Amino acid sequence: SCALVWFRDDLRLDDNPALKAAQASGRPLALAYVLDEESERLRPLGGAARWWLGRSLAFLSAAIAAKGGRLILQRGRAGDIVPALVEELNAAAVYWNRRYGAAEIAVDTALKSALAGRGVAVESFGGSLLHEPWTVRTQAGDPFRVFTPFYRSAGRQAVRTPSRADDAWSFAGSARSDRLDDWALEPTAPDWAAGLRASWTPGERGARDRLAAFLDDDLAGYATLRDRPDLARTSRLSPHLRFGEISPHQVLAAVRHAADAGTASPADTEKLISELYWREFSYHLLFHFPDLAGTNVNRRFDAFEWQDDPALERAWRRGRTGYPIVDAGMRQLWQTGWMHNRVRMLAASFLIKHGLTDWRRGEAWFWDTLVDADPANNPASWQWVAGSGADAAPYFRIFNPVTQGETFDPDGAYVRRFVPELAGLPAGIIHKPWTAAPEVLRRAGVVLGETYPFPIVEHPAARERALARFARIRGD
Ligand code: FAD
């Protein structure tokens, strides 16, 4: 008999509690991944995340092969596949790290009882969160709805120390496996993933290298520079965390170590840690509000009159709104599968507040195009920007894309990189090209309305319209 480890959002060997426990059982290991696109209500991965998954599984397979084993790949309903694997391999127990979405929990719960009925134990572990969602509660026993008290409360609790996988590997004879290539997770015709390949190294080693580079180069100064898309001083660990190639425990321990070693200031490490807790908070919300991507947490927003504006939405997706900072962000997203956090806020705010577009439409586009498309962080952040979330940004905060661009991309370097048709404009004008003198535009080779659009909506009017519309649901 063997121990079956079912990998899900935890594509790593180190600091993997399920794998560690399976190794400790002393039984030979069988390691499997199931591509489940059939179980009820599971949200299919978007295109960019599928690309990442394909690459990450290739890395994990190679890492396991280097230890003398083989990652078993199977596609279909997990509720059918896992019991069949248990049977075929004569597994005595199944090990996994927990998931927190409602559909995933339903799959796992049903499996656990089906396997128990056959006398096969399931051992589940907390692998991807610092704190299990049910362990962080208000004094009244309710889930927190506001980040700061959540962070204060969770931050007081102990976090486990990350572990390494055991060096002694022993594998069971393995089952039939699909070929990863047959899953066609990576695009071929058209191959839109060139920019993704150039930007990222999916897999556990890539995650470890990214963390090391961040600690060396970018943690010092993070608290102040993290808001500057032109400087790219954030960790870019989000897709690695999304797929569990690195655990938040590993990131937290490394950051604390840097603080102890004096290589980073308390302000910088504290800021990074609080961002890790925003991720925790999102998962906590997902656990308590299972339809986070579909339903307003604040139900008053159900009455909000969203508008359908296909032209605006198309311009937003393509990075042709006429607001350079928004367009740069949307093009960074399309080219690299990632967008800087400050610009995500601006781009989301623009679609929701300037376009009065239902946040769910923007969330869906991000879901399809982000390599870090995350079942908790993405809908929680969109709801936060819309104001429909648990802990919402105030509805009257309507970012001005010009002043935001001038503040956070002061030299225009970010815009120049992703909106090259504006590259010749001077910094003072690059965030508002429609105000430039004809002579300045001509010298830069910009023909508004031709090489680059005029703003698709005017900021002051859009702002007034949004305030009035949002006031309706407040009963003002
Ligand atoms: P760093 O600044 O280096 O932070 C380290 C880690 O902390 C991140 O990798 C991430 O796991 C976590 N984190 C940082 N900021 C946030 C935040 N605001 N909320 C939650 N966790 C955070 N993040 C995703 O991981 N997946 C998404 O699908 C996603 N969608 C978003 C959509 C919108 C509209 C907005 C405004 C934000 C979204 N975020 C999402 C949050 C945030 O933008 C990204 O986590 C961050 O930009 C990732 O870059 P980084 O790894 O360099 O972050």
UniProtKB/TrEMBL annotation:
Domain Photolyase/cryptochrome alpha/beta, first and last residues per copy: 1-130
Organism: Ancylobacter moscoviensis
UniProt KW Flavoprotein keyword: yes
Stored Pfam families: DNA_photolyase, FAD_binding_7
Membrane-traversing stretches: none
InterPro entries named in the record: Crypto/Photolyase_FAD-like_sf, Crypto/Photolyase_N_sf, Cryptochr/Photolyase_FAD-bd, Cryptochrome/DNA_photolyase_1, DNA_photolyase_1_CS_C, DNA_photolyase_N, Rossmann-like_a/b/a_fold
Name of protein: Deoxyribodipyrimidine photo-lyase
Required cofactor names: (6R)-5,10-methylene-5,6,7,8-tetrahydrofolate; FAD
Similarity annotation: Belongs to the DNA photolyase family.
Keywords: Chromophore, FAD, Flavoprotein
